[in-house]
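Entry 12.
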Amino acid sequence: MKNVMASKEARARVNQNGRVVIPASFRRALQIKSGDTVVLRLDKDEMRITTLRKRLAETQEFLKKYVKPGSSVVDELIAERREAARRELEE
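Predicted 3D structure (C-alpha cells):
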C-alpha cells in the first residue's frame, strides 16, 4: 500500500441494488482505479476485497517455487499440447 490509512475501518451503506461505494482513501491505499476488477472473498463472516492484479501477483509469487530457474512454463505447456495433438493424430 502506498500510504497507511489513518483509519482501517469505514462505514458504507448498501443501496437498493446491492452496491457499496469503496471510500476514496481505501481505493487509493489499494490502488483501485475506475474499471479495475476486484476479487471478493468470504472469510468466515467477513467479506474481503482485493484487486485482481494483487491476486495474480500473489499467485505468481507462490508458483515461483515450483518452476525451475531458466525454464518457461508456457514453453513446456505448448510442447506438451503439441505432443498430445501428435499422439491423437497417430491414433
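Annotation: Residues 53-90 form one domain. The two ends are 54 Å apart (CA to CA).
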